[in-house]
Sequence to fold (130 residues):
Amino acid sequence: MTNQPRPPGHEPAIRIVMMPKDTNAEGTIFGGVILSLMDQAAYIEAMRQAHHRYVTVSFKETEFHKPVYVGDVLTVYAETTRIGRTSLNIKVSVCARRRLDPDENVEVTEGEVIIVAVDDNGKPAAVLGG
Fold:
């Protein structure tokens, strides 16, 4: 068994099985699919902090460490690391439990997502208290 990754969040934001429709020409899961899951997990974490409309402003330093294969179960963790006036910094970590070796759980990637609360007109809004 490989060493167990230490996810930032205390409970998963998302858990999903990777399917053939998500593969690239090399037979592994598209990085864009994983980035989309990270974006969704960041939104879920932002909503846990305060109910708003949110938009993603940036991904910071996201690097893929290991490939993801069809049948792997991805668990995506998210944790708020900073709440600003209109934005949240959210650390997102993705782990894969291997289909062919369920005891193998590897860290696939991690990164920071910056999300901004917006009002009905798309203008930045205060995250807390206003």
Notes: The chain has a mean pLDDT of 91. The domain at 14-118 is CATH 3.10.129.10 (Thiol Ester Dehydrase; Chain A). Helices lie at 31-49. The beta strands are 14-17, 53-64, 73-83, 87-97, 105-118.
